[in-house]
Write a structure and sequence with these properties.
400 residues; mainly alpha; three-stranded mixed β-sheet; 14 helices; elongated; Reverse transcriptase domain-containing protein
């Protein structure tokens, strides 16, 4: 935040400097014009022109000043509205000023650590050193990291003591759930029981979800390990990729909901976090390989700006209408059995694939099927399976 503030301040100072420079140039031009005018007309006419000039200048100045003042006032109002929207509070749930203050910062606000996270730095360094490179490079990296960490000091705190205590208190409060809104980056505080009831209502949809009697994590992990070992034995996968895809974590994907505060009764958008799960690294790898294939057709829209540019010169014929459609439950609506052959065909037509990936199309298809079929998750200690569509929360699903 401090870096952003300093950058904004420097940009504003540069803008002011440029404006002052422009003003001085205009003042010099006015001075030259006055001198030229004085030499060409009588004193009486010159005074009349200058009087008219001063009145016109004063009128335009006041109009411009009024416009800028209105803009400034709107900015202040907008800022207060943004701050008030940043936290949607259910009455009586939040009372302490410290709690309100820290929640107003938003869930993306990063609190400076009270100590250097040495363990995390060491783990990240070792992970980097395990990538394919010369041993001397890995050792040099370790030495450099040790040198930097030994001289490092914790950064200055960016929250007050009251706010730090508020974070601890909120973490211990078992009666509420703090979430990010589905849209708008707003922080939402819900009563935990109300939140659980909303989630249960989603999971009770037997057409989409099925409750499992046991945790399938170990079975999925064993299947992936067996596949990778067979490929390594057949020398169909390089060691670095084998190590990259080999599952070490066993985190179960977790289900949660994002409140749609712009809709009546604040329904939830279902989300599954698969970070650290058995298939997560494999899904990330596949997403990286397949992402260049996205958008290679005339029906693809990159974003809202791309859409606006494409329809800017579109003329709708008489008696016709331009309409928009919203896909309900997009991921669960993807037909997996039809999607995989389409992906295979796209990969087959990609001439750059051998340069980007050491695996063949058959191997990629096996991994893709495993990722897309790994649609289980947990909520409140119970296990569920998504019965249709692509796995929510998997990095590969948006690409597919």
């Amino acid at each position: 935040m401090k870096i952003i503030h300093n950058a904004e301040k420097k940009l504003l100072q540069e803008r002011i400097r440029q404006c002052n420079f422009t003003i001085r140039k205009y003042e010099e031009s006015v001075k030259e014009l006055k001198s030229s005018l004085q030499s060409k007309v009588s004193t009486e006419i010159n005074n009349q022109i200058l009087t008219l000039f001063e009145k016109t200048h004063s009128s335009h100045f006041e109009m411009a000043k009024s416009r800028q003042r209105q803009k400034f006032d709107r900015l202040l109002i907008s800022k207060e509205e943004i701050r008030s929207r940043q936290t949607l509070e259910i009455p009586t749930l939040i009372g302490q000023s410290g709690e309100r203050s820290v929640l107003m910062k938003g869930l993306n606000f990063s609190v400076t650590p009270s100590k250097i996270p040495v363990d995390e730095i060491v783990a990240a360094t070792e992970l980097a050193c395990n990538q394919p490179k010369e041993k001397s490079q890995a050792e040099s990296l370790r030495n450099e990291v040790v040198k930097i960490v030994s001289k490092s000091k914790p950064p200055r705190p960016n929250i007050s003591r009251a706010e730090r205590e508020a974070i601890k208190a909120l973490a211990k409060d078992d009666s509420i759930v703090i979430l990010l809104a589905d849209k708008g980056r707003t922080t939402v505080i819900l009563n935990k029981q109300d939140y659980h009831n909303k989630v249960k209502a989603l999971l009770d949809d037997t057409n989409t979800y099925e409750k499992l009697t046991s945790d399938p994590t170990r079975a999925i992990k064993n299947k992936l390990i067996q596949t990778l070992k067979e490929w390594r034995k057949e020398e169909r996968i390089p060691n670095y990729l084998y190590n990259q895809l080999y599952p070490t974590a066993e985190n179960v994907p977790k289900f949660y909901g994002l409140p749609k505060i712009h809709k009546k009764d604040v329904p939830l958008r279902p989300i599954v976090s698969s970070i650290g799960s058995v298939m997560y690294d494999t899904a990330k790898f596949l997403a990286k390989i397949m992402k260049p294939l996205v958008g290679l057709n005339s029906h693809h829209i990159v974003n809202s700006e791309d859409f606006v540019n494409k329809i800017a010169e579109l003329e709708v014929p008489p008696r016709q209408k331009l309409v928009s459609y919203d896909v309900s439950s997009l991921f669960t609506s993807i037909p997996i059995n039809e999607a995989i052959p389409v992906v295979r065909a796209k990969l087959g037509s990609d001439q750059s694939l051998p340069d980007r990936c050491p695996l063949d199309i058959a191997q990629l298809s096996v991994l893709l099927e495993m990722c897309l079929s790994s649609t289980y998750f947990t909520f409140q200690g119970e296990f569920y399976k998504q019965k249709k569509g692509a796995a929510m929360g998997s990095p590969i699903s948006p690409v597919v």
